[in-house]
Amino acid sequence: MESIELKRFWEQVKEEFIGILPENAHPWIFPLEVSGYDKGVLTLVTGQMMGRDILRKSYGSQMADILKDITGENNSRVVIIYDENAAKTLRKENEKLQKKANEIMLKEKAMENLSNMQSASNLNLKYKFENFVIGSNSEFAYKTAMEVAKKPAKKFNPLFIYGKSGLGKTHLMQAIGHYIIFNNPKLKVKYTNTEDYVNDFISNSRKTKDSVENMSKFNKKYTNIDVILIDDIQFIESKNKTMIQMQHTFDSLYNKGKQIVITCDRLPKEIPTLTAALCSRFEMGLMVELTPPDLDTRFEIIKKLADESDIKYEDSALMYVAKNYVNNVRELEGAFTKLCAYAEMTERDVTLALAKEVLKCNDSDDGISFDKIAEVTASYYDVDVKDITSSTRGQKISIARHISIYLCREITHQSFVNIAKFYNKKHTTIMFGYEKIKKEINTDKNISTAVREIRQALKLL
User: Fold this and answer.
1) Rounded to an integer, what distance in angstroms lies between the CA atom of residue 42 and that of residue 364?
2) What is the pLDDT of residue 128?
3) How much is the pLDDT for 104?
4) Angle CA(314)–CA(319)–CA(325) in degrees, nearest 5?
5) Do the beta carbons of residue 204 and residue 213 sit within 8 Å?
6) Residue 437 near residue 403, CB atoms below 8 Å
7) What is the pLDDT of residues 117-174, one digit of tens each?
8) CATH among 3.40.50.300, 2.60.40.10, 3.40.30.10, 1.20.1260.10 for 129-286
9) What value does the mean pLDDT of the chain take?
10) What pTM did the predictor assign?
């Protein structure tokens, strides 16, 4: 019998064996290989000595009967031979399978451990570096957060991330936690919202018979860790006892060389009742600002969401959302979610027409450049635009410069660093000019009128 024909014949016989013999015989039948067939005698080879003996003793006659039914040969019988080379091959295959199984088991165990660590750390799985959209408003904050994640407590300790609500502070903070857990799982990470910290402190500091023990547990909870992520620190203001406790927590961690990351909606010095001690501690590391994303970044955020949602969309629809929701990422995502929900319910694609129908936005003044703002402001005050962006002094030029800076920030939502580049000045100077107009707009009628009329002029362009 030719080799190919022999293999086909064996496959037919093996199929019958498996179909008729009990299941506990199957593990010994599967590894069998055919060696030959001659005058009713089927010779099989195995690398399993125990398998050979079990098949011979327990199933030899049944196998011979099955073979007889297939071939019609009255003297049919099955001969099973143990082969050392086959045994070696089988052992190698088993070792490979076992190694692969162990790798899968270890990977699953590692993922389970990571999942448990993430849960224990109070982290949200969606807040990772890989799904954070980087723009000019967030590039510096992203890079410093990544540096902290790679080298906790080595640089930028504490890291203080500030900016208005919904700009991605929590996302970046928790991304640090996820990165450390995944890449340095020996380190213990804890995320806490300041409100939870406050409530936890109040609950454990009540004077009871167990108050000493409770406070001891509280301190261990927040200091027996390697990385602490404290969100929305502004909620600690006016809570004097909690601020004192926070100072103890901070000092304990810092003195032990542990990483501290804090977020806030403003700079420490702008929190009126924050103690000088805490303010100085928060300012001793690196403070980075997150500002509202520019148009291109907002579009990329929406596009990423759209691609992840696997929906059909027009770029013009996404751009419409990006142009009209400028204040923060949370608001932007909320508008997009509403649009997608309406599209799904009405079984329509996300088009520009649908976006206008659902969101009903007024035309945004976004997209106006620094140059245009400086040009219109200079025209309003009848000064040269070059004077506004130079170091030229004079009352009228200074007012025009400060108002144009204020409008650059308010209209474009660009960072102070980017605005400073345009004006060839330090970002602290730009911050001063912005804050000056921000205050005077409520107290000086001439300033408020000028800002309103320049805004109107810009919208007419």
Assistant:
1) 85
2) 92
3) 64
4) 135
5) no
6) yes
7) 556 667 888 899 998 999 888 999 999 999 999 999 998 999 999 998 889 999 999 9
8) 3.40.50.300
9) 87
10) 0.59
Please state the length of the chain: 461
pLDDT for the residue numbered 205: 87
CA separation for the pair 454, 373 (Å, rounded) = 8
**Structure token digits, residue 152:** 């906790």
Count other C-beta atoms under 10 Å from residue 246's C-beta.
Answer: 25
- Phi/psi for 210 (5° steps) reads -105, 10
User: Residue 323: in which H helix or E strand, if any?
Assistant: helix 315-324
Distance from the Cα of residue 133 to its chain's centroid = 10
- Give domain limits for the chain: 3-82, 129-286, 295-359, 370-459
Q: What span, in angstroms and rounded, lies between the C-alpha atoms of 27 and 188?
A: 46
Span between the terminal Cα atoms of the chain, in Å: 91
Please count the helices (runs of H) and the strands (runs of E) in the chain. Answer: 20, 8
Residue 197: the pLDDT is 94
Decide which of 3.10.290.10, 1.10.8.60, 1.20.1260.10, 3.60.110.10 is the CATH code for 295-359.
Answer: 1.10.8.60
pLDDT at 1: 64
Strand-strand pairing, 41-46 and 33-38: antiparallel
Tell me how far apart the alpha carbons of residues 227 and 121 are, in angstroms, rounded to a whole number. 10
- How far apart are alpha carbons 160 and 20 in whole angstroms? 72
User: Which residue do the tokens 């450049």 mark?
Assistant: 369
One of 3.40.50.620, 3.30.300.180, 3.40.50.1780, 3.50.50.60 is the CATH number of 3-82, namely: 3.30.300.180
- Six token digits for residue 402: 């400060």
Instruction: Using alpha carbons, list the distances in angstroms from residue 173 to 113, 178, 221, 233, 263.
Output: 21, 9, 19, 13, 8
pLDDT in tens, 212-258: 888 999 999 999 999 999 999 999 988 999 999 999 999 999 999 99
Among residues of the chain, what percentage have pLDDT more than 70? 92
| Side chain identity at residue 390, one-letter code | S
Chain centroid, CA 197 distance in Å: 24
